[in-house]
Amino acid sequence: MKITSIHLYAIHLPLDQPFTVSYNTYHEMPSIIIKIETDQGISGFGEAVPDEFVTGETFESTYQLLKQTLAPIVMGQNPAAFEKIHDIMNHSVYGMPAAKAAIDIACFDATGKKLGQPVYQLIGGRFHDQFPITHVLSIAESEQMAEEALSMIKEGYNSFKMKVGTEVDKDVERIKAVRNRVGPKVAIRVDVNQGWKNSATALTAIRHLKDLNIDWIEQPVIADDIDSMVEIKAKTDIPLMIDEGLKGSKEMREIIQKRAADKVNIKLMKCGGILPAIKLAHQAEMAGIECQVGSMVESSVGSAAGFHVAFSQKIITSVELTGPLKFSQDVGNLKYDVPFIRLPEQPGLGVDIDEQTLQRVTKFQDVIT
């Protein structure tokens, strides 16, 4: 089986409501869908959701990199040669993980279809039966976040990820408001997205949270400041998770050596796809560090890829892949059974692509042959 052509679709997925994190507000999510075709008539879909604040890639640069470099250099390769394809990409371009993730995911999808197996069977087999889904609360006023949390409990959710990271006083007020509204037993995770910037500010905030039964605090400081994570971890008993600070194996080695986190957030868009994510999970497992598979708010394509990774690895104990639940239109049909996700058994990613919707949300496209 050889890759004979690659279709690129630059799309904008409309969100049901604006999504605000510490560094930006999104009204729609820019994404790049790719479709690889093979000489055996088998196709595979992948996705890139770049973020200049996280992966260092823009929407436009990622599209052009795929069009001009990555798609041409993998032409004629066997999509099942995952390691070789990554080696070819890595020798041609340094970094650019979201672009590489699109190729990687499409190759796994095509290979799973060729073999008649779900992707998780290609990377270790299924370990988990299901995962609870966490509802993500976008940054808003305290009362609004609390009301949204209460309404989501009525829909079946029992855990929340709170986006914060603006002003410490307001962030503490938001967290307290949600805890007071949902009661003491509902799980709350706090994601700062680097917004508290340094250890002094982060510790000031954390002092006000010690009695609120927080599951963990995610990336309170600037991504590259691993030493501040070490300091915070030494001064609080609230578990710490690294997200933006973990991109690949180099950062994972430093996190392990310095014992800088209790948990790590693996995202396919940060590390380069399914194969690199599995390698990170294995590194973490050897060090006894639990993992989560997180989201860059991907469509059903990228979200399904993340779920296949999560379902196949024992050390992955939580997921936050809720992009498809936020879109008013999606290119795929990944199904959620709130408050759980149960992966389909179909070959490949198990996602059917709605070609009409794909064309409707496409801004521009190309074919590389």
TrEMBL record:
Gene3D superfamilies: Enolase-like C-terminal domain (3.20.20.120), Enolase-like, N-terminal domain (3.30.390.10). Its EC number is 5.1.1.-. Signal peptide: none annotated. Binds 1 Mg(2+) ion per subunit. Residues 142-239 form the Mandelate racemase/muconate lactonizing enzyme C-terminal domain. Keywords: Isomerase, Magnesium, Metal-binding. InterPro entries: Dipeptide_epimerase, Enolase-like_C_sf, Enolase-like_N, Enolase_C-like, Mandelate_racemase_C, Mandelate_racemase_N_dom. It comes from the Bacteria. Its cofactor is Mg(2+). It holds the Pfam family MR_MLE_N. Coiled coil: none annotated. Belongs to the mandelate racemase/muconate lactonizing enzyme family. This is Dipeptide epimerase.
